[in-house]
Every structure is written in C-alpha cells, then in structure tokens.
Amino acid sequence: MAVPGRRNGMNDDDDNEEGLFEEEGLLEPEADTPPHLRSLAEAAQLGNVDALSRALDNFSGSIDEPVEDGDTALHLTCLYGYLPCVQLLLERGASMEAKDEDGAIPLHDACAGGFIEIVQLLISSANNPDSVKRMLDTVDVEGDTPLHHAARGEHANVIRLLLTFGASPTKANIYGKIPSELADPETEARRILETAANAVAC
C-alpha cells in the first residue's frame, strides 16, 4: 500500500511533505503495469468513473488482479478517496478482502486517508458480521489493523466508526504499539482511543 507519511508514530524524513502522492503516479500507471491492466490502473488512479466502467467492460481478467505495486483497482480508489469508483468496483464484484504486497486490504487504505464515506461503504457492504470482523482484524506486514492506520492519520470520525463496529483499541502491531500510541498527544484521536482502550482494560 503506497501510503507515505508517519509510520508507527515516527516521522519519515525521506517522504515528500508537499504532497501525499507523487505527481507522476497520478498521471499514468507505472511502467511495470502489465499492458492489459493499464487502462484499468489509469482510470482507478485518476478517479474517472466513466473510464473505469469502460475499462471494466473491456477487461477479461479478474477484477482483483493487482494493477500496481500489488494494489488492486479497489485498493487504489480507496487510497485516493474516489467514492464513485469504489461503488462501481464493489457493484462489479471487487473483493474487499484482497491483500496488496504489504498485506493490507482496501479498508486499510480508506482509513489511512480518512475517507469516512468509503470506510462506511466498505463495512456496510460486508455480507455478515464475520466478514466485518475479519476486515477490522486484518493486519498488514507491520501488524497494523485499519484502526492503526486511522490512528496514525488522526482521523477521529473514522476512529469512532471503526470502534462502533468492534475494532480493537488494544491490539498491538509488531512494534508493540496499540492504536492510541500512534496518534499525537493532546489530539481528539488520542483521547478517543485511550478512552476505548481503558474501557477494555476495566
């Protein structure tokens, strides 16, 4: 999942702070994107729902085939916050539990960006409570759940939503960090997460 920025509460000095995504990544698919996936990848990156629909109509492969860096089209549209494209992909049968090369599912991407409408859509589109729980409990290669990603971005509304659906505020990642420890002190996100973690501990 291509989400630069703070990782596990630390600032990455190598990241470009002027923008969340590299400009060239928004203009065209990477050179290593297979030719048969380029139209799909470009439409997903740009959030062009009409182009995405055409690409899907002309696509004979799996909608869950990785189009870039292990990301499926659904990963990319969740990452960039393109709600209409996410809706289209879900209508066409895209898997909400497909994992990218870092073990993240689309919900990780939506939570990292703070896209609450997409987070709500993904959760409400799950077939049953077991599917919701699996998504909330899915960890990436660093042991981060979607709640960890929302915490790192200090997206308070997303955090509240995830907690409402049963996300664990006490699950630690591979660095031993629970979600509250990834949000800056004195922030609303930190207070919400600490309150939730304390309630579990009682």
TrEMBL record:
GO biological process terms on file: positive regulation of protein catabolic process; protein ubiquitination
* Pfam families xrefs: Ank, Ank_2
Q: Where are the ANK repeats?
A: 69-101, 102-134, 142-174
Q: In which residue ranges is the amino acid composition biased (Acidic residues)? A: 11-31
Return the PROSITE patterns for the record: ANK_REP_REGION, ANK_REPEAT
Which keywords belong to this entry? ANK repeat, Repeat
InterPro entries, A to Z: Ankyrin-SOCS_box_domain, Ankyrin_rpt, Ankyrin_rpt-contain_sf
Stretches the record annotates as Disordered: 1-33
Tell me the PANTHER family matching this sequence.
ANK_REP_REGION DOMAIN-CONTAINING PROTEIN, SOWAH (DROSOPHILA) HOMOLOG
Q: Which family does it belong to?
A: Belongs to the ankyrin SOCS box (ASB) family.
The entry's protein name is BRCA1-associated RING domain protein 1
